[in-house]
Amino acid sequence: MLSAHENAVLMRKLERYEGRVPHMYLDARGYVTVGVGHLLADLAAAQKLAFARANGSAASADDIRGDFESLLTLPGNRLAAYYRPHVRLTLPEQEIDRLTTAHISSFHRELQTIYPGFDGFPTPARLALFDLIFNVGASNLRTAWPSLNAAIRARDWAGAATHSRRAPPVSAQRNQYVRNLFEEAATVTQ
């Protein structure tokens, strides 16, 4: 269970590294995304959200289709602001918060499954793992990081720090943030 302080830190850091974008855009890998890194896997996923028109009225399924499909004609890996002139709809702030909170809850359950005893890990280690799972996904974290997972199972936080680096497009700053958290966890448990 995350404390209120941990949740606040997590929200702040996720917004820092993922951004907080109220309109649809293409992420670094070319996927349609909105809010705080919320991937929209397909049009149906986008149409489930409460997008709004500029006048504040609810967007229709066709409105959402228009924005979603217009993005697919554009190049990927640009700043989110690049896509703003190509879309008409926005996601209200409370909907962005709801999605982010839902992601955190979902990832918390995943982390508890992947790492038995997760809730007893030092706070910095938990925050590092939240950042990793948010960025790489639960399945990838579970299967594509054997050295990191071995270190975590051994509660070897210094080893986890060594094996936590993600490849670009993840920034060096974000990688350093996660490494620092694991290193801090190592000092907490000594």
UniProtKB/TrEMBL annotation:
Query: MF terms per GO, please?
Result: lysozyme activity
Gene Ontology terms describing biological process: defense response to bacterium; killing of cells of another organism
Gene3D superfamilies reported for this sequence: 1.10.530.40
> Which UniProt keywords are listed?
Antimicrobial, Bacteriolytic enzyme
Specify the superkingdom: Bacteria
Q: Does the keyword DNA-binding apply?
A: no
The name of this protein is Lysozyme
